[in-house]
Amino acid sequence: MQAQAENQIEVNRVPSGATVSMATDPECLSQTCSLLEDHGLATPAELKELRHHGQGSLRGPRPWDPLEFLAALRIREPDARPLEVERLGRSLSQSLGQPLTLVPFASKMPTPSVFYDMNESLLLECRKLMTPVLFAEESEVIGIGSINPAALRISARTIMQFIADKTGTSPMVSSVLLHHEGWISLCQQQFGI
């Protein structure tokens, strides 16, 4: 019980009581594995291992994206893994028929604090999927980024539904792929992970 409590992380700026104890988001894991399998981007053995690790408890300072797990399975050298993560993200986005732009400068973008202040539950959702909001023009045009196209799809759908329910207007949500280091930096800035 105490070991489990030690694996939970309190979130910066997130309402008290909100913790993360899974290695990765279950919906993101499921959709990522399905896409990898459907498009032949991972072997059955890799998918089995990915599901096993992704469904486990959090070990370490932050959750992992499923593409990080897969890169770690394939590449022993930690310094070489970010390139594999980026390659996997591009391959997934191309296989979905919507090649996403890989943005190298996103980590320099300021946190859209006003957007998160006005939409606190979206902060929780974006944190859970590790999809930082890159920009928000009020609640009408919103940009999000991630290393994983599956996480982007889930997050975009969640944001559009939340804003539509709140305002009666569905926003336009733009998605971009991020370089691994930039994504890590933005997750630290925005979510404290």
Please, could you describe this protein's structure?
This protein is globular. Helix 2 (26-38) packs antiparallel against helix 3 (44-54), helix 3 (44-54) packs across helix 4 and helix 4 packs across helix 5 (81-95). It folds into 2 domains: 2-95, no CATH class; 102-191, GMP Synthetase, Chain A, domain 3. It has 193 residues and is of the alpha/beta class. The chain has helices at residues 2-6, 26-38, 44-54, 66-74, 81-95, 113-118, 120-129, 149-167, 180-191, and strands at residues 9-10, 19-20, 102-103, 133-137, 141-146, 172-178.
Q: What keywords describe this structure?
A:
single chain; 193 residues; alpha/beta; GMP Synthetase, Chain A, domain 3; four-stranded mixed β-sheet; two-stranded antiparallel sheet; 9 helices; 6 strands; globular; disordered N terminus
Brief digest:
The protein is of the alpha/beta class and about 190 residues long.
Structural topology:
Elements: H1 2-6, E1 9-10, E2 19-20, H2 26-38, H3 44-54, H4 66-74, H5 81-95, E3 102-103, H6 113-118, H7 120-129, E4 133-137, E5 141-146, H8 149-167, E6 172-178, H9 180-191
Parallel strand pairs: 3-6, 5-6
Antiparallel strand pairs: 1-2, 4-5
Largest sheet: 4 strands, mixed
Count of discrete structural domains: 2
Question: Whole-number radius of gyration?
Answer: 16 Å
Number of DSSP-assigned strands: 6
Strand content: 5-15%
- Principal-axis shape equals globular
Measured distance between first and last alpha carbons: 23 Å
Spatial arrangement of strands, main beta sheet: 3-6-5-4
Could you estimate the helical fraction of the residues in percent? 40-55%
Number of helices: 9
> Which ranges are low-confidence, i.e. pLDDT below 50, for 5 or more consecutive residues?
1-18
Q: Which structural category fits the helices and strands?
A: alpha/beta
- What's the pLDDT, averaged over the residues? 86
What's the order of the H and E elements?
HEEHHHHEHHEEHEH
